């Protein structure tokens, strides 16, 4: 038995029963999917198809960035709402069970929030963020003290009927997707690493998952432009306030100049935390009428509270995200730096 303290066997039995009774199961995750969102969806979709024989599909609000597409299964449909809205919406209407992964609730699926809420399907949440929107779900697995949704899903799957806690019984692509999601969400085992995290990684390596192949896909296939843009932002674009908040603003002009694609600033926000006097790092990325905001903080500073109070967002204690809108939060997009300076003074008081 591999039961970990945070899992209730009764909940896994209920989930398994819901899967048995459903014919069309849809898995989903948050907008602008990261490795954990896509990895946990791919892993669960593989499990449901291969081990449970379900008609399975995944729906994501946005097409994943290039470096994560190796996670997409060969035959299971993954529908991206930005690319094929009609198919995605039809699939939601047809589903009898929706399992939402790696987000605190349907609000983080953005354009799909209302269709998911209005669907008559059974709804299950499997997540590791703070403040889950539990009222929308008949079954909730919510464990903030864990590395990733992929890790939580791993411990759930090992408790499923017939698994006997043996990771070798997971379909190989499922196991690889789980290790990939855990790898990106921990920033390659630098943050949010718990005893159970290393236990899972060790078990998956023993079960034959090729970690080198995963690292090659995740970290050795960048475009040159991406690395140059990261260098530019760290050199010309890095500001540090007297209170120890580092910030960078990836304006549209900079994104265009380097031809940056979605997902290519991933990881950049962590870098300023290596500076001794920096206690929190904020990255703004310009979009239409809003900046996407990424926050990372050192121990003792809550990125989550800052994201909730100042950036319409949330996430984890030391890694959060949100958005900054104009003309609502700031009058013009050019006011972003002044806003960040003000937030630094107010929040770090
Ligand atoms: P990232 O900076 O990598 O985009 O996000 C860091 C963490 O914050 C992730 O766990 C992500 O799910 C969460 N997060 C990102 N954007 C938002 C948001 O708009 N709202 C909330 N509640 N969480 C977010
Ligand atoms: Mn996650």
Characterise this structure.
Helix 6 crosses helix 8. This protein is of the alpha/beta class and about 350 residues long. The model has no long low-confidence stretch (mean pLDDT about 95). The N and C termini lie far apart (about 50 Å). The strands form 2 sheets. The chain has a 6-stranded parallel β-sheet, sandwiched between helices. Strands 7-8-9-10-12-11 form a 6-stranded mixed β-sheet. The longest helix is centred in the N-terminal third of the chain and has 16 residues. It folds into 2 domains: about 210 residues, inorganic pyrophosphatase (n-terminal core); about 120 residues, Diaminopimelate Epimerase, Chain A, domain 1 (Roll), CATH 3.10.310. Manganese (II) ion binds next to loops.
Brief account:
The chain has 349 residues and is an alpha/beta fold. The protein has helices at residues 9-21, 35-50, 85-94, 113-118, 149-158, 172-185, 195-206, 211-219, 224-235, 252-258, 303-310, 336-347; strands at 24-28, 55-60, 78-80, 97-101, 122-127, 139-142, 239-240, 245-250, 280-286, 290-297, 314-315, 319-325.
């Amino acid at each position: 038995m591999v039961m970990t303290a945070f899992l209730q066997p009764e909940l896994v039995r209920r989930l398994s029963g819901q899967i048995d009774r459903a014919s069309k199961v849809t898995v989903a995750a948050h907008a602008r999917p990261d490795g954990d969102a896509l990895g946990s969806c791919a892993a669960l979709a593989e499990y449901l198809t291969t081990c449970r024989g379900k008609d399975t599909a995944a729906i994501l609000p946005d097409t994943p960035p290039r470096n994560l597409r190796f996670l997409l299964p060969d035959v299971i449909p993954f529908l991206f709402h930005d690319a094929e809205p009609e198919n995605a919406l039809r699939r939601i209407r047809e589903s009898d069970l929706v399992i939402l992964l790696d987000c605190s609730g349907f609000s983080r699926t953005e354009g799909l929030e209302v269709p998911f809420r209005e669907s008559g399907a059974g709804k299950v949440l499997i997540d590791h963020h703070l403040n889950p929107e539990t009222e929308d779900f008949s079954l909730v697995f919510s464990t903030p003290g864990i590395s990733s949704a992929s890790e939580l899903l791993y411990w759930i799957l090992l408790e499923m009927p017939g698994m006997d806690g043996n990771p070798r019984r997971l379909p190989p692509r499922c196991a690889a997707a789980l290790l990939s999601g855990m790898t990106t969400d921990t920033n390659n085992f630098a943050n949010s690493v718990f005893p159970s995290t290393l236990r899972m990684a060790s078990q998956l390596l023993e079960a034959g998952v090729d970690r080198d192949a995963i690292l090659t896909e995740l970290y050795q296939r960048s475009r040159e432009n991406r690395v140059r843009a990261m260098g530019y932002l760290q050199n010309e674009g890095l500001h540090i306030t007297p209170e120890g908040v580092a910030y960078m603003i990836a304006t549209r002009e900079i994104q265009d100049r380097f031809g940056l694609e979605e997902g290519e600033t991933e990881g950049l926000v962590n870098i300023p935390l290596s500076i001794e006097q920096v206690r929190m790092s904020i990255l703004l990325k310009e979009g239409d009428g809003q900046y996407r905001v990424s926050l990372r903080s050192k121990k003792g500073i809550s990125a989550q509270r800052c994201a909730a109070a100042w950036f319409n967002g949330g996430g984890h204690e030391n890694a959060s995200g949100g958005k900054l809108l104009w003309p609502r939060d700031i009058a013009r997009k050019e006011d972003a730096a002044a806003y960040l300076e003000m937030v630094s003074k107010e929040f770090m008081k």
